[in-house]
């Protein structure tokens, strides 16, 4: 199996585990030096940081889905384009109580692989677009 094929396989598995909220296996797929950076570049360290951040998304949007629409791989790096869709029926998001509104946004993510595990994830989203949709504007 080529390095790029292996990278693509790891990335697809990562997002499948996240979608299933299989946090134990997701943690196993993260490198011990894993770092997650959100849009504003605030780092979350280790798999525990990633899982805490992602749990908040599922709490606010219990039905959220994020299928991979495009996956680009270059050796041990990958970029994904996804559409995030979910209904705000759970907990707060950015201080906004559940609105019952459905949101749909695009997400670009960068991932780096080391030793067969994900060592870095960067998510690039338009948070203002989410807030506008939640506020009905």
UniProtKB/TrEMBL annotation:
GO biological process, one term: polyketide metabolic process
Gene3D superfamilies reported in the protein's UniProt record: 3.10.450.50
Coiled-coil segments on the chain, per record: none
Cytoplasm in keyword set: no
Alphabetical UniProt keywords: Isomerase
Lineage top rank: taxon: Bacteria
KW Iron (keyword) present: no
GO molecular function annotation: isomerase activity
SUPFAM superfamilies, alphabetized: NTF2-like
PANTHER family in alphabetical order: ESTER CYCLASE, POLYKETIDE CYCLASE SNOAL-LIKE DOMAIN
Full protein name: Steroid delta-isomerase-like uncharacterized protein
């Amino acid at each position: 199996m080529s390095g790029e094929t292996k990278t693509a396989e790891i990335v697809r598995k990562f997002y499948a585990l996240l979608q299933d909220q299989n946090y134990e296996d997701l943690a196993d797929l993260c490198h011990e030096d894993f770092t997650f950076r959100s849009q504003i570049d605030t780092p979350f360290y280790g798999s525990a940081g990633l899982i805490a951040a992602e749990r908040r998304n599922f709490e606010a949007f219990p039905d959220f889905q994020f299928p991979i629409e495009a996956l680009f791989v270059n050796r041990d790096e990958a970029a994904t384009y996804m559409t995030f869709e979910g209904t705000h029926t759970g907990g707060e998001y950015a201080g906004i109580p559940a609105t019952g509104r459905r949101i749909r946004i695009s997400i670009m993510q960068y991932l780096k692989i080391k030793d067969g595990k994900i060592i870095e994830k960067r998510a690039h989203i338009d948070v203002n677009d989410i807030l506008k949709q939640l506020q009905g504007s």
